[in-house]
Amino acid sequence: MKPSRRDFLKIAGMSTLSLVVPTIISPAWAKEKLTIPGGEPLTAKRWGMAIDASKCPAGCVDCITACHGAHNVPDFGNPKDEVKWIWQEKFAAAFPNESHPYLQESRKQLRLPVLCNQCANPPCVRVCPTKSTFQRQDGIVMMDYHRCIGCRLCMAACPYGARSMNYRDPQPFIRKINPDFPTRTKGVVEKCNFCEERLAIGLKPACVAACKKKALVFGDMENPRSEIRLLIENRFNLRRRASLGTQPQIYYIV
Amino acid sequence: MLEKALKGSRGYWIWISFLLTVITLGFFFYLRQLDYGLGITGMSRDVSWGLYIAQFTFLVGIAASAVMLVLPYYLHDYKAFGKITILGEFLAVSAVIMCVLFVFVDLGQPSRVLNVMLYPAPTSILFWDMIVLSGYLLINIVTGWIVLSCDRKEIPPPSWVKPLIYLSIPWAISIHTVTAFIYAGLPGRGFWLTAIMAPRFLASAFASGPALLIILCLILKRYTSFDAGVKAIQTLAKIVAYALAASIFFVLMELFTAFYSQIPEHARHFSYLFAGLEGHTKLVAWMWTSAVLAFAALGILTIPQIRRNDGWLAVACVFVFVSLWIEKGLGLVVTGFIPSPLETITEYVPTGAEIAITLGIWAVGLFILTLFYRIFVAVRRDIDGTNGRN
User: Fold this and answer.
1) Does residue B151 contact residue B50 with C-beta atoms inside 8 Å?
2) Weakest mean pLDDT among A29-33, A115-119, A247-251, B70-74
3) Is the pLDDT of residue A74 over 50?
4) Is B57 left (phi over 0), alpha (psi -120 to 50) or beta?
């Protein structure tokens, strides 16, 4: 049977109504869902972090647990497939050029938290062939996990070993999935994002919030009166492999 | 002309079915890799590139080496290369196809490969590598095919082909230069951070590519009606000798800078290659084999009496090919990651699945090359047959 002109108009009218009606009746609960919990977003001209590892109690991994829990970082249980955003390294590994045999014993034993340096001049952003790694106005070097093709050129370009590849499906290896942060698929690279998702709702990064000893200080490098600026102006500090010109924004107080 | 690939001896069909078997096997393992992820390979967090990217790098060199035939023939009118220049172009075509496949199987998310074109990133060397490689593939397919079709009809090639052929000369240099830039511009990898990387790549390419072509010509001479001619093969052998000498020289330059300066960021990688680091010695035997083969081949190729003997020439060419494959297709990529930026020494060993996929792609390349060469031999026989009757 061929639809008449009248039938056609009827169907067209119903279809239009079905699109319009729900938006008129349901604005109340739809809007409620869109509100973001938490306070005003934290903003800065350039985010940075200062780390005083001498404050870290022996064996404490609070910052690592908090970060990896918040970001659904899987634990594969082997170094080959390992994914990590923040972890600990000996002084000699983090600062090979500043290390020597006559170093203070306590410094040799120091376990420094290391993470993405959020470089002001990031090689990973330069080499990415799809712009899935990019830099925000406030300096945060971020990734689009849905655009990454998994070529791993950024891993070769990063002089800090801060990037991890999902060599297999990470989901079965996440201890407890945090529904507020996306999980990743196999075949993409990931790294620390300076908790941009927490900054957006007015919270400091998870590692900073989790540290009871205040060994991690987070703030705006461009604000001369910020806590972090006062700290790094008064205490001698080092940046990892600064000679490479990457302008890392993680400052280690020594 | 394509129908000519469908006719061949029993040996031809056995070879074709052998290649198809290897391809099928590789494809099967690739499906497993797609399912499991790149964790199926020996690559790790510390050594994040392995056999695939190393083969890609080596084969870009083989592809670029076609210029060693095109340049003497078209720029200097060196007639001895007249017949075999097309063989060089077809070798380049199959090498570029292998390159593309090796990059493809190395991707963690192959279904997103078009993102490279959808979100072009001009600061990325990989983006430029895609452009120069696809351009080079196109140029060589077109010029090789057109010139062969015209040879077949015994008419001169159309005039628009000439500029394309001239363009292929700098283009060939560009593909290997851009590939070297992928490595030579990374701040934290002392092993690759060297301005001599591109010249070194080109030198080893111009040795390994023509060496492979000599081997192929000797095979064609033995099993088919096509003879490249003594003059062409001997000239190629001299090209291999000079390029090999340059390649060895460049590697020695690297060793001097690394070991005389004694800057750990540079020297430690070379120590790992030739002596091992803290008991990690997986590549040492390979690298010394490569060194010995290179010097032995140089010896054979520089003494004219030995070089003129087909048997010795074949031995020298196999030595060159194997030596440079070890240097570039095994040592160069992996060693950039050993030790890691955090001074960890993680070694790399490819897995069975990874080797099967690698062999599968090599078989694809050889398959395409076989078809091209089969067509070429048939066309040549027709031409020489007609000329013989006249």
Assistant:
1) no
2) A29-33
3) yes
4) alpha
* Minimal CA separation from B115 to chain A, in Å: 6
Q: Judge contact between B141 and B164, C-beta under 8 A.
A: no
| Contacts with A130 from chain B: Cβ below 8 Å | 112, 115-116, 118-119, 121
Q: Determine contact: A100 vs chain B, CB below 8 A.
A: no
AA identity, residue B140: N
A250-253/A47-51 β-pairing: parallel
| Terminal C-alpha separation, chain A | 85
Nearest to B116 among A149, A166, A244 (CB): A149
Question: The whole model's pTM is what?
Answer: 0.91
Instruction: Give B193's contacts (C-beta < 8 A, 6+ positions apart).
Output: B184, B186, B187, B266
Contact A249, A221 (CB under 8 A): yes
How far apart CA A140 and CA A142 sit, in angstroms, is: 6
In chain A, DSSP assigns E strands to 47-51, 86-90, 111-115, 133-135, 141-143, 164-165, 189-190, 216-220, 237-238, 250-253
Structure tokens at A219: 């703030």
Distance CA(B86)–CA(B94), nearest Å, equals 12
CA–CA gap between residue A230 and residue A253 (Å, rounded): 12
Amino acid at B151: D
Å from B139 to nearest chain A CA?
24
A204-254 pLDDT per residue, tens: 999 999 999 999 999 999 999 999 999 999 999 999 999 999 999 999 998
Contacts of B185 in chain A (CB under 8 A): 127
Q: What counts of helices (H) and strands (E) characterise chain A?
A: 10, 10
DSSP state of B277: B
Angle subtended at Cα A224 by Cα A221 and Cα A230, rounded to the nearest 5 degrees? 85
Burial (CB < 10 A; 0-12, 13-18, 19+), residue B176, is: buried
What is the distance between the alpha carbons of residues A32 and A27, in angstroms, rounded to a whole number?
9
With beta carbons less than 8 A apart as the criterion, state whether B62 and B70 touch: no
Q: What tokens were used for B386?
A: 């007609």
Domain A28-253 belongs to what topology?
Alpha-Beta Plaits (3.30.70)
Pick from A78, A91, A165 the residue to mutate for testing the B interface (most B CBs within 10 Å).
A165
Contacts of A75 (CB under 8 A, 6+ apart): A68, A173, A174, A175
Q: Which of B31, B178, B30 is nearest to A129 (CA)?
A: B178
- pLDDT class of B390 with cuts at 50, 70, 90: very low
CB contact under 8 A, A127 and B125: yes
In chain A, where are the structural domains located?
A: 28-253
ipTM comes to: 0.91
